[in-house]
Amino acid sequence: MNEKDFAELAAGAALHALSPADESLFHDTLAAHPEWADLVDDDVETVASLEAVAAPEFPPLDLRATLLAQIASTPQIGRDDHDEIAEHPSKSSGSREASSAAPVAEPQERVTAPRRWVRSIFALAACLALVVGVGIGAAALNGYLNRPAAVVALEQIQSSSDAEQATVTLDDGGTATAHWSASAGAAVLVTDGVPAAAEGESYELWFVRGETPISAGVFDVEGGTATAALSGDMHAGDIIAVTVEQAGGSPTGKPTSDPFIVIPTA
């Protein structure tokens, strides 16, 4: 047996797909050629990787039956047979005539040699696992690329060399944390334990610059938490504040209530 034939056996062994005769041939050949053990180890590692990637995926119920049907209807001609037919076309027809006249026993090596499609199925399984892995990676990438703008802004602030933050505790026990970066000119407010605004109302963000409040947008609270990016450029020393306004924000562009969150940045 050559190394290529043994590679077929090793793939079948890793997939637990060998017949008892091929299983015995596999072990006997490995004992006679310990230098081929790396092939076995590589296939075992590949199968383990496939199981790790594809374990959460469940194939169609008819996949096995379909695959076996396709294998049964496909002539299993080895590469040597193809070469022989290509070089001596007439010999192929002659062989068929001889076979119809009297059965000819195949050499023992042909009977016990591993089927050529085993390695192909092994490669196909690896490709399918790769597709599954790519699908999972694509889903993760899609989730990363479609992060909310406020989350992206918060990450940019936190990665800045001058990132700062300050937290205040509210009367009802909730907390509000302002994150900002002077170099980025951006600020994000993160709340926890703050109830959602009442129906018909919104929370409005403000930069208070000296004595002048500048609207920085409205935000909603979901599940008791919120991450809201303040619109507009932040200036050094601004105070970040939140007021309760009518739905959509103050119609006058000025606060209509006292702020219930006030966080100085200086």
UniProtKB/TrEMBL annotation:
Keywords: Cell membrane, Membrane, Transcription, Transcription regulation, Transmembrane, Transmembrane helix
Source species, domain of life: Bacteria
Listed Low complexity bias regions: 91-102
Record has S-adenosyl-L-methionine as a keyword: no
Gene3D superfamilies to which the protein is assigned, alphabetical: Anti-sigma factor, zinc-finger domain
Signal peptide: none
Cell compartments where the protein resides: Cell membrane; Membrane
Region: Disordered, residue numbers: 78-109
Ranges of Basic and acidic residues composition bias in the record: 78-90
Domain called Anti-sigma K factor RskA C-terminal: residue spans: 124-256
Membrane topology classification: Single-pass membrane protein
Gene Ontology CC annotations of this record: plasma membrane
GO biological process, one term: regulation of translation
InterPro entries from the UniProt entry: Anti-sigma-K/W_factor, Anti_sigma_zinc_sf, RskA_C
Keyword match Ribosomal protein: no
UniProt main location, coarse: membrane
GO molecular function, one term: sigma factor antagonist activity
Residue stretches spanning the membrane: 121-145
The protein's name in its UniProt record: Regulator of SigK
